[in-house]
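Before a computer can learn anything about folding, someone has to put a protein's shape into writing. The outcome of that step, for a single protein, is printed below:
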Amino acid sequence: MTAARLFHAAPDLKLGLESLLLHKLRSLLTMLGMIFGVAAVVSMLSIGAGAQQQVMAFIEDLGVRNLIVEAREAGDRQALDRVRKRSAGLSFQDLRVIRANVDQIAASTARKKFAPSKMLPRPQGEMPTVYGVDARYQEIARLRLTEGRFFDATDMDRAAAVCVLGQSVRVSLFGAGEAVGEYLKANEQWYRVIGVVEPQVSAQTDVAGVPAQDRNNLVYVPLAAAVLRTEDSYSYLRDEIDGIYMQMQPTADPVATATVVRGILSVAHGQADDFSVIVPAELLAQQRRTQRVFDMVMVALASISLLVGGIGIMNIMLATILERTREIGTRRAVGARRGDIVRQFLVETILISFVGGVLGILFGVGMSRLIAWLAGWSTIVTLGSILLAFLVSVSVGLVFGVYPAIKAARLDPVEALHSE
């Protein structure tokens, strides 16, 4: 049966190709709608995939087993005074209470950050932010070092004046030279560089409650050093600590644990709403749902172009039937059945959609690269988007080719032979 179908399809395919090549310009114009429609699907999905991949990589880098508590800074002094009447802010006491009441925490650390007003060597770009964290932060944040080492428990106990640099800070302060063993001065405190962290994924804007922060532009120092060595005249306005990182055990449910942590802190802070609990696993699931909705919306919008392309194909095919009425009558007169006529015009329609789809994919990939180059966006052309665009284009061509093919098959052979 399959061999018989191929035997019948081969002449139709040849006939269809000859017809399209005979009217090259008309065939190309007929394909234009399909080309632009497929190109729109491919390029729009590539933009969405690129943007979402960056966000997803950032969230995954936060650690799907982690919970992060961020202190919520007051907008002005009056707001701070209102909060202080009910809450002393995030503190080491909060961390101790959480550790005592949540037994599925594998590792945890407080964070104290500050933005130095001056630094030596002078940074070539934006002023780095200093993070005071525990030695366990390396494991919690999955930091990998390209040079030197991270500070350890001994450095923590001694509040040692040592630091580890993010990749951007290393380049900004020391260029291509050696960084480990050198010294930097943040405000009035000197730190000896003992390590450099490999590049990390950073978000350009806030992501679902996670503050935007260039994680490559950080200087990590022991938590005790940050607390004892970096006090300034505004320290009394800030919380004792401004962040808590917790890594949960593999069997723990981060979402349920986050509810417990929120409850503990809400009670301790008098419902002052001066903190937020970030659950990367929850954010990841939310982003995946958003990705699916975004893809469906993009495909729906781009499908309008394909729909217009399909209508264009039907219009051209109807005009072609009028032009080739005598040809149809001749074929019917020499024995062609209605099914043969339907198959002939359907093959032509599918060929138009197929070639238009291939050209559209090439055009769409080119558009995606051009957008990435001009706008500096991350674009990713996925195999799924190519297959989706191609299948939809061929399907649209097939659906819109059925009516002209049936109309051609219903022509009366005698009237068709006498048509002008």
Q: What stands out?
A: The chain has a mean pLDDT of 82. Residues 280-323 form the longest helix (44 residues). The longest strand covers residues 105-114. The CA atoms of residues 144 and 197 lie 6 Å apart.
